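As a warm-up, study this chain.
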Amino acid sequence: MKVFITRIISQSGIQILKNAGIEFVQWTEKRDLPQDELIAICKDYDALISVGQDPINKVFLNASKHLKVIAQMAVGFDNIDVSEATKLKMPIGNTPGVLSSATADTAFLLMLAVSRKAFYLYKKIIKGEWGFYEPTANLGIELHGKTLGIYGLGKIGFELAARCRNAFNMDIIYCNRNPNLLAEQELDATKVSFEDLLAQSDVLSVHTALTAETKGKFNIAAFSKMKMTSIFINTARGAIHNETDLIKALNEKMIWGAGLDVTNPEPMDRDNPLLYMPNVAVLPHIGSATEETRSAMARLAAENIVAASKGERLPHVVNPQVYEK
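Now compare it with the structure written out below.
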């Protein structure tokens, strides 16, 4: 089997491929591959490890029917037309579980940074504006005893909720399709409606997948129902919030602040007004960016490739229907 990898990945994954005798080539140029170029390249390969947001849509899949497997090196797969892949009997793998802790840490970091205007005040030091002491200037807000609301309480949301519960004794509410019994038992979390999540959260953190239902979910209508003292956090996908509406909500003081690890589009334009607001913190999509997590993600992606090379079921498969007879 010959594998094309759309980025340079950690040695943990590379070693697994080498040990299995699998040939591979990594894309080393620091530019995204246009779809037509990726299609042309894949004609010479049997499998693909997609790293990032490569457009694995209907056009790509039908032009690359020969691929035996696509291993997404991410937990999310909103860039992949999974339904079309399933029709083509093409297994799609992902890397679930291993990035939950690192991403929760990023959400926690953003929550703290926003609550104390940390990024903005750091910039003031660089500009030489750390000057006269004013007791009522640059004030943040405290998190202890406040309410954390989570939209999409899965593994990442649970990790964040545990941190907030243990560090700040925050009350936990969440909005899910189904109850999270573990969170209810261990963290005393309470399942609420979306309307109640908006109205009651002091910090509202998004941890859901990007779907037709969640795209643009946090728009001006949603922000207008949140507390004027609340903080909005998104470490999931940028398209889940409407960025124009978020800017409006912050400018009109519908909400107090926002922390983003994801934007729409990515990368964010350097002139985006969010980057210059005192009560906003933006990171360049680093949720899983630790040596340990990226190494684990590479390992899981490689394991999916090795399984496919042996004609076995992918250990981390997104569309198990492809194995149904």
